[in-house]
Every structure is written in C-alpha cells, then in structure tokens.
C-alpha cells in the first residue's frame, strides 16, 4: 500500500514538473506577441486622442499611488493607470494622454485613454477595455456620446438627461446614465491629475 502511494506521488510530481515546464515554454513563446499587441493597442488609443502627435513618451514623474490618492481626495473612485507625454515631430510637448480605469460603470470596469492639450483642452477619449450592455452602455464607444467631450476646456464634466446648456454638460446615453456618469467621472479624474500634476509643463 505504501509503495503504491509513493508510486502515485512520484507520478503526480513528475506530471506537475512536466506541466510546469510546458507552461513556461508556452509563456516564453506568447509573451512577446502579447506585449506587441498590447503596445499597438495603446499606441492606437493614444493616436486617436492626439492625432497631431508624432510620438508618445512615458511621463517620468508618474506615480500611480500618488495619482490615485489625489483622485480619491477629489471624490473619484477611478484609477489613473498611466501618463504619456504627447510630442510633435520637433519634440515639443503638445499635451498628455492619461489612461484611467473607471470602476463605477454598469457591468464592469472601463479602461480608456484621455487626451488633454497643454492648455487644458480635452481632445477626447479612446476606450481600450469595456464590457457594458450592447445597445446601452456600449454606446459610450459611439461618436454621438464621446464627441461631447471633445474640444472642451472645463474643470469637470457633469451628466444631464436633457440637451446640454453649457460646455461642461454631457447628455447621458438614453437608458444608461450609470455608464455615462462613469465615463464623465473617469475624464474628470484625468482632468484633476492634469491640473494638479501636469499643467504648466511637467516634462
């Protein structure tokens, strides 16, 4: 009986070792292609919110913990994931691309990048991850909604259920006020980070 237990244990151990080696090989093979896809996805998002930028460079002073503490102090539950400096072909700073994850959406978190020019004007946002309800919250990906944020220089956006009467007002997606507010809050969190950390040229 003891021999059988030892035999079975050795087989299980050998199986675990082989499986671990196989997983390591698979990870080694897929790591680079996955990283490349993620890089291209983020670069596309950056370009969508800063069409006139020639390059994007990581903001050297970015501190996620400090950024999110700042955002929380201003009443937002969103997380700032990254900050990039948008530059023209001559290396001049045009503004910044801030990536944020909104945690108060209807179905799940929404991750998107927000372009903000050096003078504080919001270029717009580009979503990289969203799982909202088709026909409702997913309309956040449509120009009819995201276009409302573009070209606005405000301290914060607020969601309304009627036709906007001011630059800082965003008309909610019909039947999806929660998603609408999540997007506005995420953009607002980026504005807070920009105004407190990046405004005036942080690079």
Give unreliable regions as ranges.
Answer: none
Q: What is the 3D shape? A: elongated
Major β-sheet profile: 5 strands, antiparallel
Class from helix and strand fractions: alpha+beta
Look at the structure and give the mean pLDDT: 88
Number of helices: 4
**What's the total count of β strands?**
7
Query: How far do the termini sit from each other?
Result: 70 Å
Helix content bin: 40-55%
Radius of gyration: 22 Å
Name the beta content range: 15-25%
Question: Can you write the helix and strand succession as a string?
Answer: HEHEEEEHEEH
Strand order of the main beta sheet, please? 1-2-3-4-5
Topology of this protein?
Blueprint: H1 2-49, E1 55-58, H2 64-73, E2 79-87, E3 93-102, E4 110-117, E5 122-129, H3 143-146, E6 158-160, E7 169-171, H4 177-198
Parallel strand pairs: 6-7
Antiparallel strand pairs: 1-2, 2-3, 3-4, 4-5
Outline the structure in words:
With 203 residues, the protein is of the alpha+beta class. It is 41% helix and 22% strand. The chain contains 4 helices and 7 strands; from the N terminus they run αβαββββαββα. It has helices at 2-49, 64-73, 143-146, 177-198, and strands at 55-58, 79-87, 93-102, 110-117, 122-129, 158-160, 169-171. It has a 5-stranded antiparallel sheet, sandwiched between helices. Strands 6-7 form a two-stranded parallel ribbon. It starts with a helix and ends in a 5-residue tail after the last helix. The model has no long low-confidence stretch (mean pLDDT 88).
